[in-house]
Specification:
Number of helices of chain B: 17
Low-confidence stretches of chain B: none
Radius of gyration of chain B: 24 Å
CATH superfamily of the largest domain in chain B: P-loop containing nucleotide triphosphate hydrolases
Helix content of chain A: 55-70%
Low-confidence stretches of chain A: none
Largest interface: A-B, 42 and 40 residues
Number of strands of chain B: 7
Strand content of chain B: 5-15%
Number of domains of chain B: 3
Oligomer: heterodimer
CATH topology of the largest domain in chain B: Rossmann fold
Order of helices and strands of chain B: HEHEHHHEHHEHEHHHHHHHHEEH
Strand content of chain A: 5-15%
Distance between the termini of chain B: 41 Å
Mean pLDDT of chain A: 85
Largest sheet of chain A: 5 strands, parallel
Shape of chain B: globular
CATH class of the largest domain in chain B: Alpha Beta
Radius of gyration of chain A: 37 Å
Helix content of chain B: 40-55%
CATH class of the domain at 23-204 in chain A: Alpha Beta
Shape of chain A: elongated
Distance between the termini of chain A: 57 Å
CATH topology of the domain at 23-204 in chain A: Rossmann fold
Strand order of the largest sheet of chain A: 2-3-4-1-5
Strand order of the largest sheet of chain B: 2-3-4-1-5
CATH superfamily of the domain at 23-204 in chain A: P-loop containing nucleotide triphosphate hydrolases
Structural class of chain A: mainly alpha
């Protein structure tokens, strides 16, 4: 069955339900509120606001059906549905008459019909009195559910006195609940001086998102038993077509219904013909929308239809021969009513038509006999730049008949090139750099988002990803890099930065894969080799990490950070002498390298904790800056080597009694504390006896107990030793507060960091 | 309790007003009253609750007078109500019938309707209708006339000021003649604006000086928090109950309408939000959904040209003050901006602003914005934020 494009009120309840998307929560709440109004003395008034085609009538129709089907409400509720076309309600009396007629249509009550018919024999004054009492009597003890479409039109026609009479009726009778719709928030309900100020609960109906549009199209296709479309919208291409409709129609439900007819058409022939037909169908709809505007508002729309990109208020005002203030006010009204959308960049506001389809339809007359521009506009929106290029290549070398298509495609590509002159792009770039320099990354990100929306180049997604990553939104950053790579799969910077974001999430394997991809594109990218090496090291693949660092060093031998990183990898492998050589290289290039000397000193100590080693250590500690002290460095290898070197408690005590005051003197006791926690892993090895572990704990407790910095490390060490004794006893970890439990589990490798 | 922002509440849903209602009944034992407040303060809910829960010892008649354009229309409504009551107790409006027969020669059976021919004599009909109602009545009869100032304003527009003067005179004369008759006029700021206009037009005899004027205040803090709590529970909102109820009541200035609005916002919100950011969102919304700019616009509509600039200066000064200010402090801050205004004009306009609910006197010599919501909106919409 075909789905009606313009009159959802004629659809059956089943079809309406089958097509319904996005607003289920709202519909349920509205039905619940109607129930409360029907069953109690509390009466609710709702106003649904959204531009034409957003699905207001669909929602009202659904409410009508859902409420009608509630059998327990039948004795409590009567429904009067005033449809969209209730023109000519010039007074409160007219409204009462419409309500009576709607009730008669709904209830098919002969007595009511004859009472309505007798009204026409009376004078207007008498008829008004009788109509009102007929209405009150008919409602009786029940509640009247008034479904009113286009409330702003009804209110304008009712005028001030009519609105006051309506409010007075609602207040005095307390028997009515209303669900109304309107295209925008209007003065009749908004101003404190209007009778209905604050009376309605205002609900804005949102545009469809692309996801919701896909669901809607799937529902339509299923309803029309169009298998091809059901499958198509779930493909990548299908989604990009939906995106194109989204661009053309700005999330307007009605347009999706119209487009569902040829969304899945592949060839240009099958696309352009139905498109031209659709324009013929849609033009009266858009023309009718223009009828609702004042002449100045139409003039503004006309100016905007002649431009393919957004215009500044100043430029629109110039072209309308009107003042900036006047045009600015009118543009705000047009924006509220869903005709235009605005973009504020810095101090400037730019406006464009919200639905490019409006421009296409309104341009029909101007381009009569020469539909090229319309088709070009459409193709430009329909296909991506890449697709246009591919299609053109396909058609250029084939048959004679496709030359015409080729012509359109070429024009569409040229138009794409033109669009780069969109004035907003330059404005966004300017603002982006300003904000970036001011380190206002949030604001910079806004401009980057807008550039993504306006141009959607791979560079834009890359920039957006980098900013997101900087702001800590790593997952979102990865999505943005993926988008960039969808557009340009060989962009090494996107792969490289994707690696960083994954690294930040500690997803090391995936990060390594990203850097592998980077290096497939640019083999001599030193930074990617370095990053890859660090990720390998973090994931415990020390040998592979060293190979990766070797590649980086081959490209840039004087990189102290790579020498240092390589040294750390060797440190974990227990190759202390080689590690010392690497740290020496790093210090040769950069003698001030943070922790450079300390890394080296730790290795010297690990090799042999003699007096010389203590001298080296003190020298390294002496050169630490305050900044370095506040950073993370811990002496785990130093302590593990001490533990393993000589399992003699006296030796341990001797060294620990020297190390603690030494680190304390340089306010770096935390490095020993954390080192102690990190070395717990070595204790639970099967090679270590329970007695040795217990003895290690006792020595540390004896020496370090009095220091604040060791309170937590000692608690954790104690639990580690208990865990070693009873690894299957879950109560062991309960000795620790939650945070410390997590730290220990991570140190023991039972949980990932 | 379910949330219902702006809609019609059932009397039992009108919470936190019991003390005020008791006070109003006490006043009505002695005299008639005028109930004033800004829009959406809950005047109508209060009088409808009083109407529905009135003691058996009084007769109450509630009527919303909006949409009435002429004195005859008003009389017709009153006559309808009188007739309805009398037929309910098995009586009829004999005096009105006699009058109409004399005026029009029409013999009336069944329900009395005011024929066109008798419209010019609305004044007499109104008086006779009251006489019919109050004759043999031992208990007080109270007319709750909602939005009376609006009706007067519309009648003034339609028929001129003389009619308004006449209506108010007749109503006062009825109150003075019938000791059992009470009237409750409710309406937003309109009434004294209509009367002020009348005074300027040379009407010196204040026609409501026998009525007690009562201003509807916000809810007491505990009642406001209780309302918020009941709504949160009623809607099953998953929030920290006590904390959120307190925050909502505070942000809404203890005004029930805004409490309903804020709870409703929580229900609609797709992402969790805190009360302060919801309020800020309303304030910054270019649509101004609560129409708080009205308080700025109203200065232009109701204040005399000579007072407008001073009113704005005063409100700017008070908006930025974190604490209440004494008169001297206010005047000094005005002087630091401009020396255009003298001290007496400043005092007068300060009084006007107080009467129009912009500001309140919190101590012998301390003034502040009456509502933090309006103060906040004033700062935003006037661009005063530092």
């Amino acid at each position: 069955m075909k789905v009606s494009r313009y009159t959802p009120s004629l659809l059956t309840s089943e079809t309406l339900e089958a097509l319904f998307v996005q607003r289920d929560k709202l519909a349920k709440r509205l039905v619940e509120q109607i129930r409360v109004s029907a069953l109690t003395n509390s009466k609710q008034f709702n106003l649904l606001i959204g531009p034409r085609g957003i699905g207001k009538t669909h929602l009202i129709s659904m409410l009508y059906h859902r409420v009608s089907q509630q059998t327990d409400l039948r004795d409590h509720l009567v429904i009067a549905w005033l449809w969209e076309e209730e023109w000519g309600v010039g007074s409160f009396f007219d409204l009462v008459l419409r309500i009576l007629n709607a009730l008669q249509a709904e209830c098919k009550d002969d007595d009511l019909a004859s009472r309505i018919s007798r009204l026409y024999d009376l004078s207007p004054e008498e008829a008004e009195q009788v109509a009102l009492s007929t209405l009150k009597n008919f409602i009786g003890e029940r509640t009247l559910l008034l479904l009113m479409e286009n409330l702003e039109v009804v209110f304008a026609e009712l005028g001030d006195i009519g609105q006051k009479q309506l409010r007075s009726f609602l207040q005095e009778q307390s028997c009515c609940t209303i669900v109304a719709t309107s295209q925008s928030l209007f003065n009749g309900v908004k101003l404190q001086t209007s009778p209905f100020y604050g009376f309605f609960r205002i609900q804005y109906l949102k545009d469809l998102s692309v996801e919701e549009a896909v669901t809607l199209l799937k529902n339509i296709a299923q309803q029309e038993e169009n298998r091809k479309l059901v499958n198509f919208v779930q493909t990548t291409k299908g989604r990009s077509r939906v995106q194109a409709v989204h661009h053309l129609a700005g999330g307007n439900h009605r347009i999706y219904v119209v487009f569902s007819e040829f969304l899945a058409n592949e060839s240009l022939d099958n696309l352009i013909q139905p498109f031209m037909k659709m324009l013929d169908d849609l033009t009266p709809y858009y023309q009718e929308r223009m009828m609702h505007l004042t002449s100045l508002q139409r003039k503004i729309i006309k100016v905007l239809t002649r431009h393919i990109y957004a215009m500044s208020v100043k430029e629109i005002a110039r072209r309308c021969f009107a003042t900036h203030q006047t045009i600015s006010n009118q543009l705000k009204i047009l924006r509220d009513r869903g005709y235009v959308s605005s973009d504020n960049i810095g101090r400037q506001s730019f406006y464009e038509l919200r639905e490019p389809l409006l421009r296409i339809c309104l341009s029909i007359k101007e381009t009569r006999g020469e539909p090229v521009r319309l088709i070009v506009d459409f193709l430009k929106a329909w296909y991506s730049r890449k697709e246009l290029k591919e299609l053109e290549a396909q058609t250029t070398n084939t048959s004679e008949s496709s030359r015409f298509d080729s012509y359109y495609l070429k024009l569409a590509q040229e138009r794409n090139a033109e669009e780069e002159h969109d004035p907003r792009i330059a404005a966004h770039y300017k603002a982006l750099f300003e904000k970036y320099q001011q380190k206002d990354y949030d604001a910079a990100l806004y401009h980057m988002h807008r550039l993504v929306e306006l141009q959607g180049l791979s560079e834009d997604y890359l920039g957006q990803g980098i900013l997101l990553d900087n702001l800590g939104w790593h997952k979102e950053a990865i999505r943005s890099f993926d988008k960039a790579l969808d557009i340009k799969s060989d962009d090494f910077q996107s792969w490289n930065n994707r690696g960083y974001a994954l690294f930040n999430l500690e997803r090391y394997e995936e990060a390594i894969e990203s850097w592998d991809n980077t290096l497939k594109i640019v083999e001599d990218f030193h930074l990617a080799w370095t990053n890859r090496g660090i990720a390998l090291r973090y994931s415990g693949q020390y040998e592979e990490a060293i190979s990766s660092f070797d590649k980086a060093l081959a490209l840039k031998p004087k990189d102290d950070s790579v020498w240092n990183s390589r040294g750390i990898a060797l440190r974990y492998l227990g190759r202390y002498e080689e590690a010392i050589e690497n740290f020496d290289e790093a210090l040769k290039i950069n003698p001030d390298r943070k922790f450079g000397k300390l890394n080296r000193a730790e290795m010297v100590f690990a090799l042999n904790p003699n007096d010389k080693a203590y001298e080296v250590l003190e020298d390294a500690l002496n050169q630490l800056t305050d900044v370095a002290i506040s950073n993370n460095w811990w002496a785990d290898i130093m302590l593990i080597s001490l533990f393993k070197r000589n399992q003699d408690t006296q030796q341990w005590e001797f060294h620990i009694r020297k190390l603690v005051p030494l680190f304390k003197a340089y306010q770096f006791l935390n490095a020993l504390g954390v080192g102690l926690i990190e070395s717990c892993d070595a204790l639970i090895s099967e090679m270590v006896s329970q007695n040795a572990a217990q003895a290690w704990l006792e020595v540390w407790t004896e020496v370090a107990e009095g220091h604040e910095e060791f309170k937590i490390p000692l608690r954790i060490l104690t639990t580690a030793v208990h865990y070693k004794a009873a690894p299957n006893d879950p109560r062991v970890f309960l000795q620790l507060p939650t945070e410390e439990r997590t730290i220990l589990k991570q140190a023991l490798g039972l949980e990932t960091k | 309790m379910r949330v219902n922002p702006g809609g019609i509440l059932s009397p039992k849903e009108v919470v936190g007003r019991d003390r005020l209602i008791q006070k109003l009944w006490r006043i009505l034992g002695r005299q008639s009253l005028v109930l004033t407040a800004e829009r959406r303060m809950g005047k109508t809910s209060i009088v409808k609750k009083m109407d529905s829960e009135a003691p058996d010892t009084v007769i109450t008649i509630y009527r919303d007078l909006e949409g009435i354009k002429t004195a005859a229309d008003f009389t017709r409504r009153v006559l309808d109500d009188v007739e309805k009551y009398l037929s309910y107790v098995g009586k009829s409006a004999i005096k009105v019938r006699d009058l109409i027969r004399n005026l029009t020669g029409l013999e009336i059976a069944g329900v009395v309707k005011l024929p066109e021919l008798a419209e010019d004599h609305w004044n007499d009909v109104l008086q006779r209708a009251m006489e019919d109602l109050l004759e043999h009545q031992n208990c007080p009869v109270i007319f709750f006339w909602d939005e009376l100032p609006l009706m007067l304003y519309d009648i003034k527009q339609q028929q001129g000021e003389t009619f308004v003067q006449e209506i108010l005179d007749v109503l006062r004369s009825l109150r003075q003649t019938h000791p059992n008759l009470r009237m409750v006029f409710t309406g937003s700021i309109g009434l004294h604006n209509v009367l002020t206009t009348l005074k300027r037009g040379g009407y010196a005899n204040d026609p409501t000086n026998d009525m007690k004027i009562v201003d509807v205040p916000p809810l007491a803090q505990t009642d406001a928090e209780d309302l918020a709590r009941q709504l949160i529970v009623g809607e099953g909102l998953a929030v920290e109950l006590e904390k959120t109820a307190q925050e909502i009541a505070k942000a809404a200035d203890n005004l029930p309408f805004f409490i309903h609005q804020l709870v409703d916002h929580f229900l609609e919100a797709e992402e969790p939000a805190d009360v302060a950011s919801i309020v800020k969102q309303y304030m910054l919304d270019p649509q101004d959904p609560w129409h708080l700019r009205y308080y700025r616009e109203r200065i232009d509509t109701y204040y005399l040209n000579r007072d407008k600039a001073l009113a704005l200066e005063l409100l700017d000064v008070l908006a930025l003050a974190p604490e209440p200010l004494s008169f001297d402090e206010i005047y000094n801050r005005i002087l630091s901006q401009t020396d255009t205004f003298d001290i007496e004009s400043t005092r007068d306009v300060l009084t006007l602003l107080q009467r129009d609910h912009y500001i309140q006197q919190v101590d012998v010599n301390a003034y502040e914005f009456r509502f933090a919501l309006i103060q906040q909106s004033w700062i935003i919409h006037r661009g005063l934020a530092k």
